[in-house]
Design a protein that fits this description.
By secondary structure, this protein is an alpha/beta fold. Helix content is 42%, strand content 18%. It has a single domain, classed as 3-Layer(aba) Sandwich (Rossmann fold), CATH 3.40.50.300. A 5-stranded parallel beta sheet has the order 2-3-1-4-5, with helices on both faces. The chain has a two-stranded antiparallel ribbon with strand order 6-7. A two-stranded antiparallel sheet has the order 8-9. Helix 4 crosses helix 6.
Length: 200
């Protein structure tokens, strides 16, 4: 009989994380997917109002760990910048948390922004460029604590990308994570997420 190989023990049992990236690149979608997991909680970006909240995040991750829950926080780059987070403080997030970084083609980002006329910002390209710049800096700083998730890949191959994310966070994939709904509208069709309708 063939012996089963044991999975190597992870260095971190709880991989508390931050979802970062340019807005309209899938951060809200990821938040909803991860909040479907029975042992994960992802907080909203209102907890990013100032760099002072960083201490609160660290306290929260340890409190949730005591309850056996993986803690996450959602932080679009422009929210952090608009709330006066200096660049070094943004990069410091990766010192204390694993990071899931949302990436999206600028054309798709801009199309999504246009559909949300209230969101079109004169600094849209600047924010998108800054998000990519910070991504590479985090990758250089903590390559082992960074997972890049491409929006186009996520909506085309949701199960594959969600399983990849679960592996990164050291959590088991749960089928419920594929059952993402918003305003009572199903966000999947034929195994793909409806990108034009997905709340992103």
């Amino acid at each position: 009989m063939e012996k089963k190989t044991k999975k190597p023990k992870m260095k971190y049992k709880f991989r508390h994380f931050a979802i970062i990236g340019c807005g309209l690149s899938g951060s809200s979608l990821l938040q909803s997917i991860l909040n479907k997991h029975s042992e994960v909680i992802v907080m909203f970006e209102q907890y990013s109002k100032s760099p002072d909240y960083f201490t609160l995040w660290i306290e929260e991750k340890y409190e949730h760990e005591k309850r056996g829950v993986t803690f996450g926080i959602k932080n679009p780059v422009e929210v952090l910048i608009n709330n006066n987070w200096p660049e070094e403080k943004i990069l410091e997030i990766s010192d204390y948390f694993f990071v899931i970084w949302n990436l999206r083609k600028f054309s798709g980002y801009l199309d999504s922004a246009k559909r949300r006329s209230t969101f079109i910002h004169p600094k849209a390209k600047e924010f998108w460029d800054k998000s990519n710049e910070l991504y590479w800096k985090v990758r250089e700083r903590h390559p082992d604590k960074l997972l890049s998730l491409n929006f186009e890949e996520l909506v085309t191959y949701p199960k594959r990308e969600i399983i990849r994310m679960c592996d990164f966070l050291n959590i088991e994939f749960e089928p419920e994570m594929l059952d993402v709904k918003h305003n009572d509208k199903l966000r999947y069709s034929n195994g793909k997420i409806l990108a034009e309708k997905a709340f992103i």
